[in-house]
Write a sequence for this structure.
C-alpha cells in the first residue's frame, strides 16, 4: 500500500504514456482492444486524481501533513532533480481534466474515433501533457509537458478532412510554436539570472537578487507570462483560437476547452510563487477585459453554434484573467470555482455541437440574402395548430422525438450555464465572484475596476443568453430543413453527465467552495509549498533515517 | 566573442520575425526555423560563454566547478532542438497538405483578392 501511495504521484504521467505506447502494438483493426485500453487508462487516471484530491485535503493529514505531496523523479533531491508536486490546486485541476478526458473518450468511442489516424493514442498523450503540466514543480519540465500536449493537439486538430481544418491547424501550429520559443527565452533568462529552474527554489532566490538582476528576471518572467497568455487565449493573441476550436472535431474541441486553462494555471502557479510585481498583475486585469469585451460582441455576431461556443470560452477566459487581475486574494477561490464550471460547460457544449450539427440537412444560411423568411410551421413547435380564425380547436400535441427533446434539454442547460442563471452552478460561481469582489472593497468606495468587471460579467452573460437563444430557436424551433438526429447513448451520456455534474456542483457548492478556498489560500502562501518541496527527502535517505 | 554572439542572435531573431510575418507558408516555415536557432543559441548563452571548458564532469580528477561549463543549458538546448525540429517537420507536412488542398501557398489558403 505504501508503495502505491509513494508512487501515486507519478502515475498520472506514466499511465497515459504507457497506454499510448502500448497502442502502437494493437493493430487498428482490433478496435475493441484499443477502446478498452483507452477507457481503462482514462478511468484509472480519474480515480488517481480523486485519490490525490482526497490525500491533499485535511481529511487525510497522516500522509502529507501540509497537503503538499512531493515526488522526486529518479530519486534525485529537489533543487537538482525534477520534482512532481501535488497540492490542492494541482489536485483540483487534475480531477477536472481527467473528468473532461473521460467524458471525451466515451463520446469519441461512439463514432468519432474511426476515420483515419489513431485518435486514442494521441488523446492519451494529450492527457499526459495536461497531467504533467499540473503536477510538475520545474519550469523547464513545464515547457516539456506543454510541448507534449501541444504536439498531441496538433495531431488532433488536424483530424478529419477539409482545407479549413488544415488551414486553421497550420495557424494554430505557427502561433503555438512561436509561443513556445517565447517560453524558452523566458525560461533561459530566468535560469541565467537565478541559476535554478525549480519553482520552489526560485521563490527563495528571487528575493536575494540584485537590482540589475531583478530587472532581467522580471523581463524573463514577463516573456514567460506572454507565452502562458497565448495558450490561455488572452487578447490580442487569441485570434487563432475561435477558428481552430470551431473547425476541430467535436470531441477534440471539448478536450481543448481544458487546454486554455493550462495557460491560466501556469500564470497562477508561477505568478504566485515568483511573487510577481503589482504592475504585471494589473496588466492581467486590462488584458482580461480586452478579452472579455470583444468576445462578448463576437458572441452576438456569431452565426454558427461552434463559433459561438468558442467565443463563450474566450469570454470565460476574459472573466478569469480580469478577476485575477483585481489582486484580491479572497477572490481566487470563487475564480477557480468559476473556471471548473466553465470548463465543464464548454466541453459539454462542444460535444452537443457535434450532435446538433447532424440535425441540419444543408448548411445554415450565412449571408443575409440567403436567409429564408421564418417558416410558418413555427406553431408546430409549440404543439399547437395554425390558428384558425374561428372557434377553438381541440388540443392536438405533436410527438417530439426523444432525441430532439434530449438535445433541446441539454441545450437549455448549457445556455443557462453560459449565461450564469439559476439553478445551474454557473450562477453560484458568478454570484460568489461578484459578491466576493464587492465585499473585498472597503464599504462605500468600491473601486472603478471592480464595478467595470461586475458590469462586464453581467453584460456578457446577457449577451450569451441572447445569442444562444437566437441560435437555439433556429436549431430547435424552425422545423424547416432539419432532420431528427440519430443519437447513440455513448454520445448522449457524457454530455448529460457533464451537465449533471454542473448541477451537482450547485448542490455541493458549499464543500467545494470551502475546499477551493483552502486551495487558494495555500496558493497565496507559497511558503508551505516551498518548504515541502525543498524538505522532501529521497526514499533512500528516509530509509537511512529509519536505521 | 560576446558581441559576435549577441549580434548573431539578434540577426537570426530579426530575420526570423520578419519571415514569420510574410504571407507565404514556406517563408513562415523558414521564419520559425530561424527563430528556433536564435532561441537555442540564446539558451546556450545563458549558461555563460566559456572557452575550453567541458560540461561533463570527469569524476576521476578533482572536481572544481570553475573549470567546467554549466551543463544545464546544454541539456535544455538539446531538448529544445529536438522539440523544435519535430514540430517544424510536422509544420512542413501541413504546409504541403494545404498546398495540395488549396492550390496556393498563401497562409490563408487563398490568394489575396481572389
Amino acid at each position: 500500500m505504501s508503495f502505491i501511495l509513494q508512487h501515486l504521484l507519478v502515475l498520472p504521467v506514466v499511465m497515459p504514456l504507457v497506454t499510448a505506447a502500448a497502442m502502437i502494438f494493437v493493430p487498428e483493426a482490433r478496435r475493441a482492444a484499443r477502446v478498452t485500453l483507452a477507457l481503462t487508462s482514462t478511468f484509472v487516471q480519474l480515480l488517481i486524481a480523486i485519490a490525490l484530491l482526497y490525500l491533499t485535503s485535511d481529511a487525510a493529514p497522516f500522509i502529507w501533513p501540509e497537503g503538499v505531496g512531493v515526488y522526486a523523479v529518479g530519486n534525485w533531491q529537489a533543487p537538482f532533480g525534477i520534482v512532481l508536486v501535488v497540492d490542492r490546486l494541482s489536485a483540483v485541476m487534475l480531477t477536472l481534466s481527467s473528468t473532461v478526458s473521460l467524458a471525451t473518450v466515451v463520446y469519441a468511442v461512439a463514432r468519432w474515433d474511426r476515420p483515419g489516424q489513431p485518435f486514442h493514442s494521441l488523446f492519451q498523450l494529450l492527457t499526459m501533457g495536461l497531467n504533467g503540466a499540473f503536477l510538475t514543480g520545474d519550469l523547464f519540465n513545464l515547457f516539456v509537458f506543454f510541448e507534449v500536449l501541444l504536439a498531441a493537439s496538433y495531431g488532433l486538430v488536424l483530424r478529419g478532412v477539409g482545407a479549413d481544418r488544415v488551414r486553421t491547424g497550420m495557424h494554430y501550429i505557427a502561433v503555438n510554436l512561436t509561443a513556445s520559443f517565447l517560453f524558452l527565452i523566458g525560461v533561459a533568462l530566468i535560469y541565467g539570472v537565478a541559476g535554478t529552474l525549480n519553482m520552489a527554489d526560485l521563490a527563495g532566490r528571487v528575493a536575494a537578487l540584485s537590482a540589475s538582476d531583478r530587472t532581467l528576471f522580471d523581463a524573463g518572467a514577463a516573456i514567460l507570462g506572454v507565452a502562458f497568455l497565448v495558450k490561455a487565449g488572452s487578447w490580442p493573441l487569441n485570434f487563432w483560437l475561435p477558428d481552430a476550436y470551431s473547425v476541430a472535431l467535436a470531441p477534440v474541441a471539448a478536450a481543448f476547452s481544458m487546454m486554455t486553462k493550462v495557460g491560466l494555471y501556469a500564470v497562477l502557479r508561477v505568478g504566485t510563487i515568483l511573487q510577481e510585481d503589482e504592475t504585471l498583475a494589473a496588466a492581467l486585469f486590462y488584458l482580461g477585459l480586452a478579452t472579455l469585451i470583444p468576445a462578448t460582441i463576437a458572441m452576438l455576431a456569431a452565426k454558427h453554434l461552434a463559433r459561438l461556443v468558442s467565443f463563450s470560452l474566450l469570454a470565460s477566459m476574459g472573466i478569469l484573467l480580469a478577476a485575477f487581475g483585481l489582486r484580491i486574494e479572497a477572490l481566487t477561490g470563487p475564480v477557480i470555482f468559476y473556471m471548473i464550471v466553465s470548463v465543464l460547460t464548454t466541453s459539454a457544449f462542444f460535444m452537443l455541437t457535434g450532435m446538433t450539427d447532424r440535425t441540419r440537412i444543408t448548411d445554415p444560411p450565412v449571408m443575409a440574402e440567403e436567409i429564408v423568411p421564418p417558416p410558418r410551421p413555427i406553431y408546430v413547435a409549440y404543439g399547437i395548430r395554425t390558428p384558425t380564425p374561428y372557434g377553438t380547436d381541440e388540443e392536438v400535441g405533436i410527438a417530439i422525438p426523444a432525441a430532439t427533446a434530449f438535445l433541446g434539454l441539454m441545450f437549455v442547460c448549457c445556455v443557462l450555464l453560459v449565461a450564469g442563471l439559476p439553478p445551474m452552478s454557473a450562477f453560484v460561481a458568478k454570484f460568489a465572484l461578484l459578491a466576493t469582489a464587492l465585499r473585498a472593497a472597503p464599504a462605500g468606495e468600491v473601486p472603478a475596476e471592480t464595478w467595470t468587471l461586475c458590469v462586464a460579467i453581467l453584460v456578457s452573460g446577457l449577451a450569451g443568453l441572447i445569442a444562444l437563444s437566437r441560435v437555439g430557436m433556429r436549431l430547435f424551433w424552425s422545423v424547416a430543413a432539419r432532420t431528427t438526429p440519430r443519437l447513440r447513448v455513448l454520445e448522449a451520456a457524457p454530455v448529460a453527465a457533464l451537465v449533471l455534474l454542473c448541477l451537482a456542483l450547485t448542490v455541493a457548492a458549499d464543500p467545494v467552495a470551502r475546499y477551493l478556498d483552502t486551495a487558494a489560500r495555500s496558493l497565496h502562501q507559497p511558503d508551505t509549498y516551498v518548504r515541502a518541496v525543498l524538505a522532501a527527502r529521497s526514499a533512500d535517505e528516509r530509509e537511512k533515517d529509519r536505521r | 566573442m560576446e558581441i559576435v554572439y549577441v549580434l548573431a542572435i539578434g540577426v537570426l531573431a530579426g530575420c526570423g520575425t520578419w519571415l514569420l510575418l510574410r504571407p507565404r507558408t514556406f517563408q513562415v516555415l523558414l521564419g520559425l526555423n530561424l527563430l528556433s536557432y536564435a532561441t537555442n543559441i540564446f539558451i546556450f548563452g545563458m549558461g555563460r560563454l566559456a572557452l575550453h571548458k567541458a560540461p561533463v564532469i570527469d569524476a576521476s580528477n578533482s572536481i572544481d566547478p570553475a573549470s567546467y561549463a554549466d551543463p544545464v543549458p546544454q541539456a535544455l538546448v538539446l531538448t529544445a532542438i529536438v522539440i523544435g525540429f519535430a514540430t517544424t517537420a510536422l509544420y512542413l507536412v501541413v504546409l504541403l497538405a494545404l498546398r495540395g488542398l488549396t492550390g496556393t501557398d498563401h497562409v490563408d489558403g487563398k490568394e489575396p483578392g481572389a
